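Dear support,

I submitted the protein below through the web form. The confirmation email said the job was done, but the results page showed an empty box. After a refresh the structure appeared. I'm attaching both so you can tell me whether what I see now is the final result or a partial one.
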Amino acid sequence: MTDYTDYFDEVIQAHEAIERWFAVEEEETALERLLTRFSPRFSMVTPLGRVLDFEALRALFQMAGGKKSGFRIELGELHGIALHERGATVSYREQQTDASELHTDRRSTVVFEKTESGQVIWRHLHETFCSE
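What the results page shows now:
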């Protein structure tokens, strides 16, 4: 079994939702919908090495919601690393730009879980800044 489609789709759809959340002021319900994509046991290592849990992610999203005018995310280089019965690990490259022309480039690895209902959720994310 080597079909990563559900996981690649989730990477794309989640980033579309994150892009909207950061760029446009939205209702609190949009944040709650966004957060349902993440496991309550979610963990993340940011590009600067900071470790976040689900509540820290929530706080980050709450703080930044609608405050990054012109924010854009471009994704590429999606690769499947491991696929198993309860989820998958994939990597991708993410480039972010905002209205002030601030540009960041990062490589990310995400561990996904698939719930019993079939929902793909983010369990762990590790991001690293790129210099190339």
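Response: this is the final, complete result; the empty box was a page-load delay. The mean pLDDT is 93.
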